[in-house]
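Feature request, filed as a ticket because there's no other form

It would be nice if the structure record came with a short human-readable summary line next to the tokens. Right now we just get the raw output. Example of a typical job, pasted below so the devs can see what we mean:
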Amino acid sequence: MASLDPVLDKDGVRLTVDETIATVTLTNPAKLNAQSPALWRALAEAGSALPGSVRVVVLRAEGKSFSAGLDRQMFTPEGIEGEPSFTDLARGSDAKLDAAIAGFQEAFTWWRRNDIVSIAAVQGHAIGAGFQLALACDLRVVADDVQFSMRETSLGLVPDLAGTHPLVGLVGCARALEICATGRFVAAEEAVSTGLANISVPREQLDNTVRDLASALLAAPRDAVIETKALLVGASGRTYDEQRAAERAAQARRIRDLAGVGE
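Raw output as currently delivered:
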């Protein structure tokens, strides 16, 4: 694939766009793509910078690991230069602390927009915030060396980067609790068998497999994919009859659109 000029390249995040496919790359392999508030702001900015032509977003990472989680400097008394430390956050009001966490979460929420399908290509370690970033995407393709782990609980924290909802949706409450409370590693075979990952492939095949999946997703008409994703994402919050009604309404829109008849 030809080299593309980045739309954004800052704070460990690079965004490139090739017509209908955007690629967001974590670019700090020397630190195992450890995450910081600056990286989260860059990820949120990447989501806002997507052109309307983009239908598929691929999330990938340089180096041997997808992301080792939070930059441990955030846990030190001095924190990261230019950023509030954990102590600073703790001393703030409830409203300020809530607003700060909500700001961090913005990096993890836009991947589920109905107008795109997002794919995480995950290799090596995806720990804590790294695990939650992979969970932020619609689909996960993993290398056979992947190691997922939710370590927040073992640090006295909770997973708060929008990862608990998709985790429970994928594996159920009991298994999600066990994964989070123990902080254990989930390898590729278990990830696929439990639904955490769509497919596992040898490391050297990861990029090509994701590329093939992206091409397959682009084969269907865009509006049909958008309507289908919206139906599936909303299904868990509807009753059976409500879901049937939502299907009827969505199909009516598609039939009228294909027939060129306005509502």
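Something like this underneath would help us a lot:
The mean pLDDT is 95.
The first strand starts at residue 8 and ends at 10.
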